[in-house]
Amino acid sequence: MVISGLSKSIQIAGGGVAGLTAAIQLKKAGFNPIIFEKEQKVGAGRHGDYEGLDNWIFSRNVPAFFKESGFHFSNITSYPIYRFNVHTQLDKPIIVQNNQPFFYMVKRGSGPNDLDYQLYRQCIEVGVRFEFGKKAPETCQIIATGTRKAAAFIRGINFKTNLKNQVHLLLGSQFAPKGYAYLIIIDGQGTLATAFKNPKNLESNPLQNCLEYFSEIGIKIRHGIWFGSRGSFSLPFGSIRSPYQIGEAGGFQDYLFGFGIRMSMMSGRAAALSILGNKKESEMILKELNRKRRLSFVNRIIYEQLSDKRMAGLAKKLSEKSNPLSILADAYTWNFKNILRWINMRYRYEVRPT
Ligand SMILES: Cc1cc2nc3c(=O)[nH]c(=O)nc-3n(C[C@H](O)[C@H](O)[C@H](O)COP(=O)(O)OP(=O)(O)OC[C@H]3O[C@@H](n4cnc5c(N)ncnc54)[C@H](O)[C@@H]3O)c2cc1C
């Protein structure tokens, strides 16, 4: 939709993926968005580390999804992942593979090939304005300032390596209590990270345990840049209205594994469509997002109840399936079984719907 003759200014707080998506949609429809980013550049809070664009939560595939969000995916350097190794404390490593990619890996940050920088470039190309190094004014109609309440913690290391491309997932309390750890090596660059809950109750250092485990199986990680971050599990299910809270600021995230990029972008699109007067489509996106969030909530509750032994068993089962991606997709499908689960479990989480 293009609104002619309008030079309407929209102020957006935060230049993450959510704010950038809202901005490009608004600009392409004739509005004049301006993004206030407190850092000196887009992607400054990231470290060039790899993150995965999940390919099972939503039915649209990743390139189509980016097009719908206003961006050219081909400009972003990405790596489809068809197989990965799963390690548990109780069994030998197994391989999970699929004929469709599980993820598209992208780098986060301000480097020329990074997701954040590429989305920023595409915003600049269509004329989105940016104010860097400034906290956003109170008057912003769109709030896209990222995580509010820390509930999940991430510790990691980025490093250079000669090892070949590979992806590993580590499960179990030693590597990541109530979470997961991963090692991604692509084109000589690696990210090892562990995402876990309740750092106060840790009996040992999960990142150190991961490093020692990999060292034992011959994957030595010597020098690198350490990083730490956090994620939220807030669950506001309000409607999309001004001031719009999008991305992680609005709780748009997968609560199982913390996938937030696509949900953040979709919430940015929903806010833009609402401002553009396309309330129906905006509400439809919100409905889809809220269903996925509810099911990710259910999946997290189930996941947190798994013992290390049961988790190892499930990973083994997944590796024996011909299409494990479809099993992951089933866990995010709004069907009778999953709706019942949601009804039974919705009050059992520490952060309740508001
Ligand atoms: C280590 C880590 C690994 C992750 N891995 C994955 C993954 O593999 N796959 C996945 O899908 N998701 C992953 N996520 C989650 C995903 O990165 C986030 O959900 C997503 O980036 C959220 O986007 P956002 O735009 O809401 O917020 P952000 O990307 O956090 O952007 C918010 C922006 O707002 C700016 N800002 C904050 N306050 C102000 C203010 N007052 N004024 C102006 N600017 C402000 C910040 O500087 C920042 O640039 C991961 C997150 C972390 C931390």
Mean pLDDT, rounded to whole units?
Answer: 89
Architecture of the largest domain, according to CATH? 3-Layer(bba) Sandwich
CATH superfamily of the largest domain: FAD/NAD(P)-binding domain
Distance between the termini: 33 Å
Strand order of the largest sheet: 6-5-11-12-13-10-14
Low-pLDDT windows of residues? 1-6
Q: Considering DSSP H and I runs of 4 or more, what fraction of the residues is helical?
A: 25-40%
Number of structural domains: 2
Number of strands: 15
What would you call the structural class? Answer: alpha/beta
Could you give the order of the helices and strands? EHEEHEEEEHEEEEEEHEEHHHHH
Radius of gyration: 20 Å
- Major sheet size, sense and barrel closure: 7 strands, mixed
Q: In percent, how much strand structure appears in the residues?
A: 15-25%
Any ligands, ions or cofactors bound here, and which? flavin-adenine dinucleotide
Helix-strand layout with pairing:
Elements: E1 9-13, H1 17-28, E2 32-37, E3 50-54, H2 62-68, E4 78-81, E5 83-88, E6 94-97, E7 103-107, H3 115-126, E8 129-132, E9 142-143, E10 152-160, E11 166-171, E12 180-186, E13 189-197, H4 206-216, E14 225-231, E15 244-245, H5 261-275, H6 279-305, H7 308-320, H8 324-330, H9 336-345
Parallel strand pairs: 1-2, 1-9, 2-8, 5-11, 9-15
Antiparallel strand pairs: 3-7, 4-7, 5-6, 10-13, 10-14, 11-12, 12-13
Helix pairs in contact: 1-3, 1-5, 5-6, 6-9
Bound molecules: flavin-adenine dinucleotide.
